[in-house]
Design goal:
Layout: H1 2-16, H2 24-37, E1 43-61, E2 68-90, E3 95-100, E4 103-107, H3 116-125, E5 165-174, E6 180-188, E7 197-203, E8 209-216, E9 222-235, E10 238-250, E11 258-271, E12 288-289
C-alpha cells in the first residue's frame, strides 16, 4: 500500500507540472522578445568615449566614399586617454554617423552603435557588422526630415537570433546596480565568427537583457582570451549600451600583451530628426576596418 501511495504521489506531481515548463532556451527567447519589442526612436544621439591600454583606437573618414574607417594599432607601449566622438544612429537601417571635425562619416560598426539594433547586428554578423549587406546608393541630397506630426518612436523589428545558438542555463548572476539576474550560455550552431555571442545575463525582475558577452576568435590580431562585454541600461524606456569593454591577448608578433579598450556611451538623447547634415551624403559600403578582428 505504501508503495502504491508513493507511486500515486509521484504521478500527481508529474501531472501538476506546467505543460510549457521554463527552459533556458524559452527564457532566452522571452528576453529576446522583450528587447525586440521595445519601440526604437528614429534617431539616437550620444558621445562615445574610448580609453585604451596596449592599443590606440582611431576613427577616420574616407573622403571618396564618406565611410568611416576604424581600427587600432596594437603594442605594449601604446595606449590613449579619452578619445571622444559624437555619434547619431539612424534606427531604420542601423547606420551610424560619426562626427569628425566639421563633417560626418558613416559606419555600421556595432562598437559605435549603442542601440539594441547594434547588439542584434553584433549577435548575427560579428564584430564588423553587416559586412555583406548591400547599402543604399550615395546621395548628395540630405534625407527629408520627418513631418512634425511623426510619432516620437518607430517600431523596429529585429530577427530573433536564437536559432543561430544553442542555449544552456548558467545559474544566478547580477546586473549593473546589483539587481538579481540569471546567466545563459550561448554556443553558435555554426560559424562562431559571425555568431560570436557566448554569455547573456537577464534581469529577474524586468526579464530584459542587461549584459551580453561576445568572443573574439583567434586571428591575425587576437591570439587568445578575446571578448567583448556590453552592459545595457534603460533610458526613457529604451534599452541602450551604457558601457563596454574589448579585451584580448595580442599575437606575439604584435607584442603579445593584453589589449583593453573601454567604451562609454554618454549623454544619450532621442529625437525624430537628425542634426543638420548628419546623413546628407552618407551611404556606407562594406565597413572598413584595419583591426582585423
Amino acid at each position: 500500500m505504501s508503495r502504491l501511495l508513493a507511486s500515486l504521489a509521484v504521478l500527481a506531481a508529474l501531472i501538476a507540472l506546467p505543460v510549457d515548463a521554463a527552459t533556458p532556451r524559452r527564457e532566452f527567447l522571452d528576453a529576446l522578445a522583450r528587447m525586440n519589442g521595445v519601440p526604437q526612436p528614429p534617431y539616437v544621439e550620444y558621445e562615445v568615449v574610448v580609453r585604451a591600454s596596449g592599443a590606440q583606437f582611431y576613427v577616420t573618414r574616407d573622403p571618396l566614399t564618406g565611410n568611416a574607417e576604424y581600427g587600432f594599432s596594437v603594442g605594449r607601449a601604446l595606449g590613449n586617454t579619452d578619445k571622444r566622438w559624437n555619434v547619431v544612429v539612424r534606427n531604420r537601417d542601423e547606420v551610424s554617423a560619426v562626427k569628425l571635425g566639421d563633417t560626418y562619416a558613416a559606419t555600421r560598426f556595432p562598437g559605435l552603435n549603442a542601440t539594441w539594433g547594434g547588439i542584434d547586428d553584433w549577435m548575427r554578423f560579428g564584430i564588423n557588422g553587416r559586412v555583406a549587406t548591400p547599402e543604399p546608393s550615395p546621395s548628395a541630397q540630405p534625407l527629408a526630415s520627418p513631418a512634425a506630426t511623426e510619432a516620437p518612436v518607430i517600431a523596429i523589428v529585429h530577427a530573433l537570433v536564437a536559432p543561430d545558438y544553442r542555449v544552456s542555463g548558467g545559474g544566478p548572476a547580477t546586473c549593473d546596480g546589483g539587481s538579481a539576474a540569471r546567466r545563459f550560455y550561448l554556443r553558435a550552431r555554426s560559424d562562431p565568427y559571425r555568431h560570436p555571442a557566448t554569455d547573456v545575463t537577464v534581469d529577474d525582475a524586468t526579464h530584459a537583457i542587461c549584459t551580453i558577452r561576445f568572443e573574439l576568435v583567434h586571428n591575425d590580431v587576437v591570439d587568445r582570451d578575446g571578448f567583448v562585454e556590453l552592459h545595457l541600461t534603460k533610458s526613457a524606456g529604451v534599452y541602450v549600451v551604457g558601457r563596454g569593454e574589448i579585451s584580448f591577448i595580442a599575437q606575439p608578433k604584435l607584442g603579445g600583451g593584453r589589449v583593453r579598450i573601454f567604451i562609454d556611451y554618454v549623454g544619450v538623447q532621442f529625437s525624430t530628426s537628425p542634426p543638420p547634415q548628419a546623413f546628407a551624403t552618407l551611404a556606407p559600403a562594406t565597413p572598413a576596418s584595419n583591426a582585423n578582428l
